[in-house]
Amino acid sequence: xxxxxxxxxxxxxxxxxxxxxxxxxxxxxxxxxxxxxxxxxxxxxxxxxxxxxxxxxxxxxxxxxxxxxxxxxxxxxxxxxxxxxxxxxxxxxxxxxxxxxxxxxxxxxxxxxxxxxxxxxxxxxxxxxxxxxxxxxxxxxxxxxxxxxxxxxxxxxxxxxxxxxxxxxxxxxxxxxxxxxxxxxxxxxxxxxxxxxxxxxxxxxxxxxxxxxxxxxxxxxxxxxxxxxxxxxxxxxxxxxxxxxxxxxxxxxxxxxxxxxxxxxxxxxxxxxxx
Length: 275
What we know:
The chain has helices at about 5-10, 20-25, 45-65, 70-80, 85-95, 95-100, 105-110, 115-135, 135-145, 150-155, 165-170, 215-230; strands spanning about 180-185, 195-200, 205-210, 245-250. It has about 280 residues and is α+β, with helices and mostly antiparallel strands. A hairpin with a 6-residue loop joins strand 1 and strand 2. The longest helix is centred in the N-terminal third of the chain and has 22 residues, at about 45-65.
């Protein structure tokens, strides 16, 4: 079994059954024992399915309790902003899950260890593993600890119905020029494409977003730009897009015209303490 001590310290949780954590880190590309072509090997997709449900329930409850006067629609949108492939991949990067993923040789060669979809899936699987290992309340505490920054600073539910429209309205209060969206790159295999778009205004980049489609990436870029502008606008620096592994330029016909070429021993005790 691989040594996952450092990962458990970063996670803030020590597993009673370390095998659950190892399973959560086993990528579907490992379908058979590569040392001898033995019986099919288990991978993390079932734990990913479970972890997704745990995350949804934990964060839904927190939003429900924190925003008692907000309706279903805005709450649903706020949850989607907090729990999506991008944010889950970011959580996976913070935990450095890519370093510990068990993947096939082919997936390793193609950059799968750092692929956002693999990191997001592994993070969900790890949350599912925590739930199986110690139950819902412990999993809830773990999720909220990892999402503390998002919850700690969120005092209002933003208007997430139409981030592109909201950004345009905000910018055109000062200028008649609309924001411009550009398709920056496309990465990942054919069945799991990641689109990356930027949004610019008056020659300055305001945000960058990723998604499974160009439309989704543009919406994410608009959300990032809105957050950037509300934190001080051009006096600050918009964050770059998360790394997506090996990127390729999008097909020429996909580019917009403006795009130029070229506590104890109990396992709930913080894992940073000695076992």
